[in-house]
Design brief:
Six copies of one chain form a homohexamer. By secondary structure, chain A is mostly helical. Chain A has helices at residues 8-17, 39-51, 82-98, 114-131, 151-161, 171-180, 203-209, 224-247, and strands at 20-25, 103-108, 141-146. Chains A, B, C, D, E, F: It is an enzyme of class 3 (hydrolase).
Chain lengths: 248, 248, 248, 248, 248, 248
């Protein structure tokens, strides 16, 4: 059940069955020569939309611009400052809490978001920890799952791509978008085959170290079929995680 | 050309042809008994995605949660505080300016966003007005178009729906989503046929005055065919507006 | 009754009769070769102070610096960032709500303030929409009236000034200040007689397009007598609007 | 020369003679049984407007709502949060700096503002201290004068009112407003003759300790004639202070 | 009793005896050729830690970076913006209020902090003044003591150092740190013997006027023995002030 | 070399040798029946102060209140909201950058800080990524090390404490403080011997799940001798990490 495709009465009905919701959250940033700029938002959107097709899971809108300051050296990348992102997540969760949602699972597609999402959770919890019974909001709980972090997903990544998986513009995320958007498959020659890896700070530093945008990956290994398999594995993980979280 | 379905090199190429981009912007809020909660984000997304199919227009990610505090009395509605929305739009535009974008057209689907989007534009311009040559950002210009405000669109709305058009959960916006998402067409009996109209303040006030969420409208007049016509009219308006703006 | 010229006991008494207050709100910005920099704050102040002379209306302090970033290319113009203005209006209204005021009518003199004032109203309402019964503030309602927007006022402007009325440094607002401050009437030759009109973004852009500060207007048409008539018409509009709002 | 009663060209001319400006700053808060709620804004406004009548001093708009949270227990009092006030002062000064103003003298009427005004100065200076040559703003200097702090003013207060002067709703400030607004002179019996004095925290605490709003004062000692003398003494102090500051 | 060296059960016990706590607060900024950069944080820390040795006083962590933008022209100086400092003090006090602390005595070592600390107190009180019974926090009271402001301390400073005491990098504060940290005593020749005094704005202005960092002082007068005496005098002042405040 | 015990000239000299600095960062929060409330700030302070004794490392002030909202159910715990902590870290780093520091190593003692510290780094980098050459600050790089994360430290923890190490109020951190502050060693009986483990959200939730404050640990295993060994191992790790970072 997609929030955007539902009426308010349908959400009212859903709330009689469950107080939990999934929010896909990603980023809008370069993904190397063959990866789509929307990859990190598209992957959790694709997977969560699949998951709700045969499970009673409500999926909210996709939070599609995240923390990507380090990618601003590449055209099309967009970022929120972490302080803005915290404020926005705070507002999203506070809105959902008004309706009685008590469990919000952020289903994430971008490693660079993890710190700020967790900081946002603390910001939200702090309201109630500081105010106690006088709080303006009920005790909503949040959870962060990365779509690639369920063990079968990561196992397949390691087995299929090995050391070419890397950490940015990975073949797995490219494969997921290829499966979902076959008309948007891009091809390019990459050199070196496996991109360099390492630490980075700001956009200039990132571009200097990773000139085509990839980090440690060979995204040419991606194909739509494997993408479909990864989606299926992650869907299973999400369903299970959601069920446990909703019942917690 | 969709930013989310492009690579950074493709955006680099686009920037040699144009410094302009469209950002669909809407809201996640109840739309009466038959309207989708995502209506205000979906309409500008649908129309702008259509527009870029045969025109050289770059469309960015959809800003999908806006100013909807007055709808929080209905399940599923989500809001940003205006101050949060200003910060987020500021970050989006500042990111695009890094890459050399100089014209950002916000293509809007929600009347309740207009004030805050315009306030955000002033916030962005103020940086440069206060700093002059010492500004941290180049002189990017922003524009706000509402998808329904092109004259042929509004003419068709008035002619087709007359006094049943109203101002929230209108048959025109419902029709657009019906055309794009025929599997999500909802039916319901509404009473009175045309909802009441009037002013409102907060969520409790809104719910008291507009008990099923509609304002002044009879959304049961909507059908997918008319939705398709409205999309086509708005696409024409957007293409023309974008071309003029990009050349300004 | 002017808040600034009253004691707290007099306000206590007023609150037994009415829960409504008027806040004049304007801007401090250039108004062309003959307009006063304070015009947009002075006009609503002049009119609201007149209105309270023979009606039981409480008028608060004038909010005298507003959104005027686009005028910073002309000496003496001052601006708040919209985010600052939202915070300030929030504090003003929250203060008034402590005393039991439930209706705050912002009587506005500057078109550039409209978006931000409306955004501020949403920010205020959002507190209560998000917190419901746990809100830290009672359900105060706000309203925005522009002094020139009452129909008889605008009719006189159109009839008296025609196409020379324009949209900034208009003869009507200049006339109002001439009537109230005859010692500060300025004269200058303007060329062209009617200034250019159009869109603008930041201060540099505005100054380039409107080199003497006027937009679309011929302020030399102003005289104090017409100013007095405009004040009288707007006073009537304000009294009526206030009465209706207070009773709503 | 009043900024609000000047044109931008007149300010341009002024800037060829001086880079200094006066900003009257006060508060909107209860002033006991006979004091006006606007007292703290009116006093610096009255005095600075007098001062510019025969001296080349530019006086800007009055910053009329300040830090008065402790007075919110009395009807009509209004406050900014200190963080809001800092943001607003920052914007005012930044605006003036755009035009080349280099000296901003805040002429203050409220003891409760002093801490926050000084904090705002540090906030403004910190921009440049942290950015150095890369600063977005030139090196503007700010100064705070309280209208009552010039020695001859305080001498007259002590001599005229003695221990009845107190610290809030003082006869001196009441006298200044009586001189300027003789139609708004209020009378009341006060008991005890001299109000209690002491420390306070929030609004509830203040109201409990100072039930009629006065602190340590007997404002019934005020009369318009003394008010006129105090204005004259403070005008002299302001002129001298401004001249020195402008030349610094 | 040091909060940092206690367990939560020990604090629970303390709260049965007292609702008051001391927070040492200072700054990290240059203190001339012989003064330690930590002087302003170390002095209140040293004195408050001494005071709790034989009195039932709970001392919290030291707030060690304060308002020091004007010292940024000298290596090692660090500052918070006043708005950041207000937010941080707000959070510290709000945290303590959760546990039932009702009196928070900020024991200060830096004149440049005074304005912002007082502004922070107003910010904290404003929460409750604006919300009344609906406040999210109980009515905590705050107090600011400067370690040097107890009369016997200042008397000794004047008697011992005379006009060489000055206002920054004073022999008294240097002496206190010499007594506590004899291994960190620094020596240098200073010229002129007594540094210049005066007003300042930003870091560049300060460095220009006070080239070795001192203001009006001759810190070579300091010795550890006098430091010990000053500590003892200030300890007595703090104990007495705390006792009175806790009982208020 | 301790910043707090140095003069500005000594820091000037240091900057000719190195552009790197260590900032100990921790938290003020309950640490179970025997752990000190200051544990998480004390551990990195102890270790970094040891490290600088025989290495040319500059150690700044300790950031001693961090993200601890979940511990507010236990007396004495203090927290910053993550948004406040980001602002404060931003100011600290910006200050250091003024002096030419280019590498800031945050040496952390609290797992709950990690997300927010990393978010703060992104906030800092975003300034420059968004502004490029027009940035107000040079390209400073930040790094986060947890004192327990160097492999030999963690190896000793696992070997010495095994499954009694847990994740909060661990015997290793208690041991470190016992070694440094033998006069503050606390004893208590704990039951169960090894505390429960699990996830948590706000303060109420944490207290319900972990009634004596410990998570998964048996802190009674701690002794000062092991604390000294852990300090030595972490000192070695910090020295090596700092050297590499400073040279990067």
């Amino acid at each position: 059940m997609l929030l955007h495709h539902s009426t308010w009465q349908e959400v009212d009905d859903y709330l009689t069955r469950s107080k939990a919701i999934v929010i896909p959250i990603g980023s809008t940033e370069q993904h190397g020569p063959t990866g789509l700029i929307g990859t990190d938002a598209l992957c959790p959107e694709i997977i969560s939309h699949e998951a709700q097709k045969d499970a009673d899971i409500l999926v909210g809108p996709t939070f599609n611009v995240g923390c990507a300051q380090h990618h601003l050296g590449f055209a099309g990348s967009m970022t929120l400052r972490p302080s803005t992102m915290i404020a926005a997540i705070h507002d999203w969760v506070s809105s959902l809490a008004v309706h009685g949602f008590e469990r919000v699972l952020f289903f994430n597609g971008h490693g660079g978001n993890i710190a700020t999402i967790n900081a946002a959770f603390s910001e939200i919890y702090a309201d109630r920890s500081l105010a106690g019974e006088a709080s303006n909001r009920g005790p909503v709980k949040c959870k962060l799952d990365n779509w690639w972090d369920y063990k079968p997903v990561m196992d397949m990544c390691m087995k299929t791509y090995g050391k070419g998986h890397g950490s940015h513009a990975t073949p797995s995320e490219v494969a997921v978008t290829q499966w979902a958007y076959p008309d948007s498959i891009k091809t390019a020659e990459v050199s070196p085959t496996i991109a360099p890896n390492g630490r980075f700070t700001d956009a200039e530093d990132y571009r200097n170290k990773f000139p085509d945008g990839r980090m440690g990956s060979d995204p040419t290994l991606a194909n739509p079929e494997d993408g479909g398999k990864l989606v299926a594995l992650s869907v299973t993980g999400l369903k299970s995680s959601f069920e446990t979280f909703a019942a917690s």
